[in-house]
Design brief:
Number of strands: 0
Distance between the termini: 11 Å
Shape: globular
Largest sheet: none
Number of domains: 1
Number of helices: 4
Oligomer: single chain
């Protein structure tokens, strides 16, 4: 799941896929704004056929935590 999420993130946000690690902090390590984040979340929702609740994102800080949330919602 992490690999798929990382690939979508890299493509959507024009980032180097290899630089995205599970511990990469989405807000402080990546130079993205809130619009980029909304676009990325939308791409993930479309790809996996899920809906990520806004309050589900509040406690997510790393790429690994986001991938775990997606995995949980995709079950």
């Amino acid at each position: 799941m992490f690999e798929e999420v990382r690939g979508i993130m890299a493509k959507t946000l024009d980032l180097d896929e290899e630089s995205l690690k599970p511990e990469t902090n989405i807000k402080s390590d990546l130079d993205i704004d809130s619009l980029d984040l909304v676009e990325f979340v939308s791409e993930v929702e479309d790809h996996f056929g899920i809906m990520i609740p806004q309050d589900g994102l509040e406690n997510i800080s790393t790429v690994g935590e986001f991938a775990a949330l997606v995995e949980q919602l995709a079950k």
